[in-house]
Amino acid sequence: MSDQLDSNPQDEGQKPAEYTAQGIQVLKGLEAVRKRPAMYIGDTALRGLHHLVYEVVDNSIDEAMAGYCDDIKVVIGEGDTISVTDNGRGIPVDMHKTEGKPALEVVLTSLHAGGKFDSGSYKVSGGLHGVGVSCVNALSEWLKAVVHRDGKIYEMNFERGIRVGEMLETGTCPPGENGTTISFKPDHEIFPERVFSFGTLRARLRELAFLNRGVTIDIIDERADIERQETFLYEGGIVEYVRWLNEGRTLVCAEPIYIEGEKDGVQVEIAMDYNDTYNEALFTFANNINTTEGGTHLSGFRAGLTRTLNTFANNSGLLKKDMKGLTGDDVREGLCAIIAVKIPEPQFEGQTKTKLGNTEVKGQVESLVNTYLTQYLQEHPKEAKGIINKCIQAAQGREAARKARDLTRRKSALDTAALPGKLSDCSSRIPAECEIYLVEGDSAGGSAKQGRERRFQAILPLKGKILNVEKARLDKMLSNDEVRTIITALGTGIGSGVFDITKLRYHKVIIMTDADVDGSHIRTLILTLFFRHFREIIEHGYMYIAEPPLYRVKKGKKEIYAFSDNEKNKLVKEMGDRGIYVQRYKGLGEMNPDQLWETTMDPETRVMTRVTIEDAADADHIFTILMGDDVEPRRRFIEENAKQIKLEDLDI
Questions:
Q1: Which of 49, 173, 469, 493 measures 20 to 30 Å from 535, CA to CA?
Q2: What is the DSSP secondary structure assignment for residue 620, as one 8-state letter?
Q3: Residue among 481, 518, 536, 648 flagged as catalytic
Q4: In this structure, are 45 and 170 located in the same domain?
Q5: Catalytic residue (one of 58, 62, 86, 514)
Q6: Residue 378 DSSP symbol
């Protein structure tokens, strides 16, 4: 569905004004970026490293949104260098009137400099803070800019943000062959780890391709022994995004509902569909920026959706007389939706731009949803009935879950004052220093209980494989002993309006399972539970996976643990073949308490992996494929990824 709620004659059929040096406004300083890089890119770990690429790509995407670019190429080169090429207009190279130097140099060396502050150059842009590419320049060992513009090729080089030599005219190019290439190498003085993840970059580039229909985005990895390439082009835009997210799910509507409109210069696009799961998957964007904390566009969508479906359900007689109405949770169960807005003057909360603050957007989105979703429901009675029935079932499940919670509270099963008997709790009551191990099996649980440091380490043994919550509503989850035990031990409660992260009793929740197929399956089931129902625990950085050793290599009195086959083989070779004893641990239960403490539980020596969510949409898609009912997508995923997949590749 597509329409305009309001029109602006000034914008109709017009592209932005000519993009020249006069459109570059300087608002100054660069040294602060190197002194406090985290203020500008979030951190100097892997997330900040990849953010450098996003800043450069976002400039190319801004050209695409302005209508001047439809091809972007990102290359990961040897030595983890990055090159981003687009076929946009090319950064201006003429002299800047007030700065007295080429506009290209101004853009690359001055904070708050760019065409995004001039509404004539860009109608909408994601880079309105103006620190993007100059930040990348400041934090790179070297950066090279090559511009194709007006039939000529220009080049400028920098080292740690300082220009090296003058801007050079290096050749000619065919008229109309415009564009910019930014190549750089992150500075080892700033970033302790400089290895780019193909998977992490791929997820963001795929997301941008979904959000900008008709734009081709290539990612190429040229590093030795890794060479790979993927191309993203989605003519259907966010409608294809919803289809991709719903892969492997049974859908209520044959085709996603698509809503599009514009009011007061704010462009709104929404694609949505309902599926047979019990989880909501809502992803919001403002000027292509993933607003992970939501904001006014999300509030407007939720309000409009709840009001519209309640009104339709009452007017159509589908809502039973004894029902008080549908809540927000009811109408979002099983909903997958993308909400994308484009705003001339976006107001983000914080430099990381994760929450939209424009107050006017809420009413605009709510009005749009109410108008066009009502129209859709009236024109598609079969789908409308399916959606309302889905919401009614969710309401019934919510009531069943409430009764189950009340019942278990009366039995003290969910009362944090009465912790489960199988939990060996720690003596400390300070969450920041407490950790809980979710351990596979009673045998390993016994060793962990004996080997732990009782002051701050709690042990919760789990019997067998917990319920796959991907296929279960909350009321069924609450009837599962193992899931209920985990909920009780955590202390946060579960479900909308009940879960409270401030009541979490441990700030390290550690999954400790055997290094075999069953252990991996149990770990995945636990991760599914936390991703779907305790996501804030992951987002706060409280979730970890223990990494027990696979081998114990002993020669004489010397004893070393190995965490992989390669590590074991290297040790055997170094220690010599004679008199060596190699023990392969088939499970945690084979370790005595001292060994388990020394290798896996001692904070001084243990190895743990922190679970993070780099890309929620990607994680949602993977969990659906791996844990859902549809076998075919799972089989295809395994066939394509079995040889190279690692836990960290899932980016969850």
A1: 49
A2: H
A3: 518
A4: yes
A5: 514
A6: H
Among candidate residues 58, 240, 440, 482, the one labeled active-site is 440
Helices (H), ranges, 507-603: 517-533, 535-539, 565-575, 593-596
Q: Could you give the number of structural domains in the chain?
A: 4
CB atoms closer than 10 angstroms to residue 493: 15
Do 344 and 431 belong to one domain?
A: no
Residue 362: closest CA among 272, 294, 308, 288? 294
The rounded distance, in Å, linking the Cα atoms of 66 and 73 is 18
Looking at residue 135, which CATH number applies to its domain? 3.30.565.10
CATH number at residue 427: 3.40.50.670
Q: Whole-structure pTM over 0.85, yes or no? A: no
Clarify whether residues 180 and 298 are in a common domain.
Answer: no
Q: Is 440 a catalytic residue?
A: yes
Respond yes or no: is residue 221 known to be catalytic: no
**Tokens representing 5?**
């709620």
Q: Do 201 and 309 fall into the same domain?
A: no
Q: What share of the chain is helix, strand, coil (3-state, %, to 5)?
A: 40, 20, 40
Is the residue at 617 inside a domain? no
Residues 500-513: tens digit of each pLDDT: 999 999 999 999 99
43 has catalytic annotation: no
SS3 326: coil
> Does one domain contain both 171 and 309?
no
Q: Who has greater pLDDT, 16 or 64?
A: 64
* pLDDT tens digits for range 334-372: 999 999 999 988 888 765 568 899 999 999 999 999 999
Among 562, 564, 431, smallest CA distance to 492 is for 431
Q: Using alpha carbons, list the distances in angstroms from residue 399 to 394, 407, 415, 577.
A: 9, 12, 20, 65
Question: Would you state the pLDDT for residue 191?
Answer: 94
Per annotation, catalytic residue among 159, 189, 349, 516? 516
Residues in CB range of 10: below 8 A, 6 or more apart: none
